[in-house]
Design a protein that fits this description.
CATH architecture of the largest domain: 2-Layer Sandwich
Shape: elongated
Largest sheet: 5 strands, antiparallel
Number of strands: 5
Radius of gyration: 32 Å
CATH class of the largest domain: Alpha Beta
Structural class: alpha+beta
Number of domains: 2
Strand content: 5-15%
Helix content: 40-55%
Number of helices: 8
Length: 237
């Protein structure tokens, strides 16, 4: 089938092609709500351990201590994204009486999904995005405590250190994150796009089910020769 034939089908059944898109567009206009504002805190940590070499021995200018700090930063930035870490944070919050609207502990899965981390050399950053700004400071505090107080639960080689292997560099600040233009447009655009696709499919289905012969091309496609055609009249003379 040539592209011109597709065009003829869509011109013939244009109302069927547009109907689903119009219905979806009307439904979206009536039910669409702007995505809620999210809130974020950024936790900056510095990682490191004291040098192990005694004072009277050469320590290679603390090279190995700096190298260990990079390993710690890399390891802890990976740990904060794990389910076990999220479960520990959820338990800390529950112990403080911070729960969800149903009175149950905050789901570990939701906490895990709210955490994004990155690291560079001896520093690592934890981004926490949460819908409730009143819970976010406690969530940030619980994450900080789990990182600084319980790192040995994830890396046994960090046990028995005289100082925590990670330290919070600055105090976290809750910042609102308004919905991005992409998040506001993606949902309606996908719905309308699906409506257009459904309409095009409906138009071709109606054409397939329609038994009417409308032009000579359809007769010729069935092997029936056409001797002549009568053009449409523009009115009586």
């Amino acid at each position: 089938m040539e592209l011109r034939e597709y065009g003829r089908i869509l011109r013939r059944w244009w109302w069927a092609a547009l109907l689903p898109a119009l219905v979806v567009l009307a439904y979206t206009g009536l039910t669409y709500r702007t995505p809620p504002t999210l809130y974020q805190v950024v936790l900056n940590f510095a990682a490191g351990t004291p040098p192990e070499a005694p004072a009277d021995q050469y320590g290679y200018d603390r090279y190995y201590a700096w190298l260990a700090s990079e390993y710690i930063a890399n390891g802890l930035s990976d740990i904060v994204r794990r389910g076990a870490f999220a479960q520990a944070v959820s338990r800390r919050l529950a112990a403080q009486g911070i729960t969800g609207a149903d009175g149950e502990p905050l789901p570990a899965g939701a906490i895990q999904g709210a955490i994004v981390s990155d690291n560079a050399q001896s520093l690592f950053v934890v981004y926490v995005t949460w819908p409730d700004p009143t819970q976010l400071p406690a969530l940030a505090e619980a994450i900080t405590a789990e990182v600084t107080e319980n790192a040995a639960a994830y890396f046994p080689q960090l046990a028995d250190l005289p100082v925590p292997p990670a330290r919070l560099v600055d105090l976290p600040v809750v910042t609102p994150l308004p919905p991005s233009l992409r998040s506001r447009l993606t949902g309606p655009a996908i719905r309308v796009g699906l409506g257009v696709a459904l309409g095009i499919g409906l138009a071709f289905l109606l054409h397939y089910l329609d038994p009417t012969v409308r032009d000579r091309h359809e007769l010729e496609a069935m092997g029936i020769p056409v001797l002549s055609t009568v053009p449409k009249g523009r009115g009586r003379r």
